[in-house]
Design brief:
The protein is an alpha+beta fold and 290 residues long. It folds into two domains: 116 residues, PAS domain (Beta-Lactamase); 138 residues, Alpha-Beta Plaits, CATH 3.30.70.270. Helices cover 36% and strands 25% of the residues. The protein has a five-stranded antiparallel beta sheet, sandwiched between helices. A five-stranded antiparallel beta sheet has the order 7-8-6-11-12, sandwiched between helices.
Length: 290
């Protein structure tokens, strides 16, 4: 990533008082501005607090941020950010895990835009990080974005003319688990399924709990083969046994994929199509609860 020194007399890209006033409007969303030519940046005071950034104006902040990204997600995040820095991509939207001040990994959504420079303006990368562990559109059981966050994310994908891969995952027979072992057990199955999904995506896509025992994964700029490859991996690993007391339970599941050359429909229309596909998908069998 290109970095140059700058004069300390240069002003920050945005008036500090205005920027921090905007930042303080939300405890869970962290705006940032990065000058790609000089390495100068501005981050919200909440980001400094929650992710132990060295200051509100760190230099080389992309490298500082990448060092906090989960090792399993880091290569994919770095590859996308490199494309933003070199001008290949002008829009970046990813979900990945970032180490917070407490030393734990928080699931974050990052949406940003590259602003090309002019003779008088530098190249900029401007965006917002959403901390899913704190956001009010986060599902309390799994820590993933909920149906409202999913609808918003699909809406954001309509802004850029890229192909997209979507994967629906439904955990079957959760009602039977709840009836036999209690609702805490059903929640544990869903929570461990969400953790497995994050391992399978490795920062490539964004994950959400849609409704009930259904999850949806969104992948930007994925072709059908890439989407199917992730779906196959999910089928192999998501059915891993969950220990419910002394009982080893393997959840049955269904997986369906949808490829779009462009996200040019309303989110509800796309989700309805996914729901229809998941109903027709064959079940990957699990433990029988009789």
């Amino acid at each position: 990533m290109r970095r140059n020194a700058r004069s300390p007399n240069n002003p920050p890209p945005c008036n500090d008082r205005v920027f921090q006033a905007i930042s303080m409007s939300s405890e869970t969303r962290y705006p940032f501005i990065i000058n790609l030519d000089t390495g100068e940046s501005q981050w919200s005071v909440n980001a400094v607090r929650d992710f132990d950034l060295p200051s509100q104006h760190p230099y080389n902040s992309l490298d500082i941020w990448l060092a906090r990204v989960h090792p399993e997600d880091r290569d994919n995040v770095r590859a996308e950010l490199d494309m933003v820095v070199n001008g290949t991509w002008h829009f970046h939207c990813m979900q990945y895990r970032v180490m917070n001040t407490a030393g734990k990994y928080a699931l974050c959504d990052c949406t940003g835009y590259r602003l090309d420079g002019t003779d008088t303006e530098p190249n900029m990368y401007v965006g917002i990080v959403t901390n899913r562990s704190l956001a009010d559109t986060t599902d309390s059981v799994t820590g993933l974005g909920d149906i409202h966050a999913l609808v918003n994310a699909i809406g954001e994908m309509r802004r850029v003319a890229r192909n997209a891969g979507l994967i629906a995952i439904k955990i079957d027979e959760i009602a039977q688990v709840n009836a036999r072992f209690g609702f805490d057990a059903g929640d544990r199955v869903l929570a461990e399924s969400a953790a497995c999904l994050m391992d399978c995506s490795r920062g490539k896509g964004r994950l959400f709990r849609s409704t009930g025992p259904m999850f949806v994964a969104l992948f930007d700029d994925f072709d059908p083969e890439e989407t199917d490859a992730v779906a196959d991996e999910i089928e192999r690993f998501l059915g891993s046994p969950v220990l419910l007391g002394s009982f080893e339970y393997q959840p049955p599941l269904r997986v369906a994929t949808l490829h779009l050359d462009a996200v040019d429909r309303q989110p509800v229309s796309i989700l309805n199509e996914l729901n229809a596909l998941i109903k027709e998908a064959p079940q990957v069998p699990g433990t029988k609860l009789d």
